[in-house]
Amino acid sequence: MENILEIKNLNVYYGVIHAIKDVSFTVRQGEIVTLIGANGAGKTTTLQTITGLIPPRSGEIIYHGKSINKIPGHKLVSQGMAHVPEGRRVFADLTVYQNLMLGAYTRTDKAGIDDDLEMVYTRFPRLKERVNQPAGTLSGGEQQMLAMGRALMSKPRMMLMDEPSMGLSPIYVNEIFDIIRKINEDGVTILLVEQNANKALNIANRAYVLETGRIVLEGDAKQLLTDPQVKAAYLSE
Amino acid sequence: MASFLTYLISGISLGAVYAIIALGYTMVYGIAKMLNFAHGDVIMIGAYVAFLIFSTLGLNPILAVIVSMLACTVLGITIERIAYKPLRGASSLSVLITAIGVSYFLQNSALLIFGADSKTFTSLVSFPPIKLMGGSVVISSVTIVTILASVIIMIALTTFINKTRTGQAMLAVSADKGAATLMGIDVNRTIAITFAIGSALAAIAGILLCSAYPALSSTTGAMPGIKAFTAAVFGGIGSIPGAMIGGLVMGIIENLSKAYISSQLADAIVFGVLIVVLLVKPTGLMGKKIQEKV
Ligand SMILES: Nc1ncnc2c1ncn2[C@@H]1O[C@H](COP(=O)(O)OP(=O)(O)OP(=O)(O)O)[C@@H](O)[C@H]1O
Ligand SMILES: [Mg+2]
After folding, report:
1. Are A206 and A33 in contact (CB under 8 A)?
2. B186 to chain A: which residues are within 8 Å by CB?
3. I need a surface site. Which of A54, A61, B50, B96 has the fewest CB within 10 A?
4. For atom 14 of ligand 1, which residue has the closest CA?
5. CB-ligand 1 contact for A14 (6 Å cutoff)
6. pLDDT of amino acid A1
């Protein structure tokens, strides 16, 4: 399968802090790839560098065969890349509807936007019930659904998701992972960052383990589930 | 009673000018999280441009308004690009000092170009006044146009922000620049648009202000600028209805104080009221939580 995203020898610094050290990985068309790791491992930094929020010091980010290092973050959305950020970051004062329409900001195909709005409402019925409610008044799980719905409104080919299960009750966590699987079945390639390694490895095709800015392990997700090293460090229940 | 009404109406008119200026302050603050202290001086430049077109060249007043708005729009975008954009991410103190520098730059440029003697601005509005209550209350045409203009601007701005894609992008940038970028919004462009709108409004404010108070010099924008900034803080900085209400309240208090208490003390009273309001409600009348520049 073709690589949709290729990261080569990426290095990212915060001032003198070397947060991402020579990281390389690939995501192929149609896959769910998960990036797991403990707090501060550099997962968020990796995603933010890919979507242009943080400039890399060195290395290459190749998306659909082209280097996107120099492309400003806001231009990636229209190229089919959507990022569901850590902490959801919905626009709290704006309504659910306004948030969703901001997701479609780069699009001009009115009919397509309407169709996708219906699709999002079907996928997240709870959002439909709350269209005119300010996003800040939604529960954590609902806000996560809104952040995902908002990303879907850009009609992405690839979605980066940063800890979508963070802070959610177990029922919501299962629901969110089900939705991720369904989004992927509809043809969206997914790069999933998670601390919930168990759940993430269960739905992913492949996985990379990040430790203090370095990839220390990679492989087939189901195999990593039984890897003693992974079990000891990330699957302790 | 008649004289009270007269003072009140001219207070509303002065307040409407403050409100239009305050909108510029508050929009830029809401989106760029910075206090653009040069905003008052853009008003002065706008008034000079209108003066050149209308009085010096003797052209059509509508044309004067349009050219003045265009000139201030270009000026606002240029100031943002050259002085403020390189400071994105710098401390708010650096930005503030830069803004004060830009303010002096504009004032001294005007001094150099237009000279130190103050010009007498000819009102661009020239239809007859309206007389009420058998002629005891006279409302000048400038007053009427000023109040009408502020209402139209308020409605247009609110509609723009709530109904257009660019307006929604402005709200998104104001709330979270990173998340806005992830929506595909060009944050720099959105900030530039905000400066453009604020500066075009400053041109209108300058023309209306000088049509009512005709002395035009390089410092004409300074005091109204500070008062409008105060009005924006009073109403809750970042809030558009707050700027409107804040401006009106300031103008009314100022004019009534001048009429009934003392014209020397009027400014002290205005700022005194501001201090009291901020002590009781630190975020201003319509303000929510205070956001620091991040
Ligand atoms: N803005 C910043 N300035 C300085 N250092 C930062 C900044 N953001 C992150 N770091 C550091 O970079 C490293 C990686 O952080 P990052 O947020 O990418 O980790 P993470 O894997 O997403 O962690 P978590 O699971 O807690 O979200 C950490 O050591 C963190 O302290
Ligand atoms: Mg993180």
Report:
1. yes
2. 72, 74
3. B96
4. A42
5. yes
6. 67
Q: What fold is seen in the domain B2-280?
A: ABC transporter involved in vitamin B12 uptake, BtuC (1.10.3470)
Task: Return the number of other C-beta atoms located less than 10 Å from residue A225's C-beta.
Answer: 18
Could you say which DSSP state residue A95 is in?
B
Read off φ and ψ for residue B215, nearest 5 degrees: -75, 120
The nearest CA of chain A is from the CA of B31 a distance in Å of 14
Q: Please report the DSSP string for A22-78 in residue order.
A: EEEEEEETT-EEEEE--TTSSHHHHHHHHTTSS--SEEEEEETTEE-TTS-GGGTGG
Residue A203: exposed, middle, or buried by beta-carbon count in 10 A (0-12, 13-18, 19+)? middle
Q: Report the half-sphere exposure of B227 (CA within 13 A, side-chain side).
A: 29
Token code pair at residue A235: 């699957």
What separation in Å is there between the alpha carbon of A155 and the centre of ligand 2?
A: 24
Q: For residues B13 and B170, give the distance between their C-alpha atoms in angstroms, rounded to a whole number.
A: 29
How does pLDDT run across B141-187, given as a tens digit for each residue?
999 999 999 999 999 999 999 999 999 999 999 999 999 999 999 99
B164 touching chain A per CB within 8 A: no
Contact B181 A106 (CB under 8 A): no
Q: In this structure, is the dihedral angle defined by the CA atoms of residues B80, B82, B87 and B89, taken in order, positive or negative?
A: positive
Whether B58 has its CB under 8 Å from any CB of chain A: the answer is: no
When pLDDT is cut at 50, 70 and 90, the band that residue B136 belongs to is confident
Mean pLDDT of the B127-133 span: 84
Nearest-Cα distance to chain B for A105, in Å, is: 6
Q: What is the pLDDT of residue B36?
A: 92
Instruction: Indicate the helix (H) or strand (E) that contains A160.
Output: strand A158-162
Using CA atoms, how far apart are residues A127 and B158, in angstroms rounded to an integer? 26
Give residue-wise pLDDT tens across range A178-229: 999 999 999 999 999 998 899 999 999 999 999 999 999 999 999 998 888 8
List, for residues B237-257, the tens digit of each pLDDT value: 888 899 999 999 999 999 999
Beta-bridge partners for A83: A160
* Residue A39, phi then psi, degrees to nearest 5: -55, 135
DSSP B75-129: HHHHHIIIIIGGGTTS-HHHHHHHHHHHHHHHHHHHHHHH-SSPEEPPPS--SPP
Is B168 in Cβ contact with A101 (below 8 Å)? yes
Q: In terms of pTM, does the model score above 0.90? A: yes
Q: Within 10 Å of residue B2's Cβ, how many Cβ atoms?
A: 13
Rounded to whole angstroms, how far apart are CA atoms A235 and A237?
6
- Residue A85 beta carbon below 6 angstroms from any ligand 1 atom: no
Count of CB contacts below 8 A, A vs B?
A: 65
Task: Compare CB distances from A89 to B176, B184, B186 and report the shortest one's residue.
Answer: B176
- Give, using CA atoms, the residue closest to atom 25 of ligand 1: A39
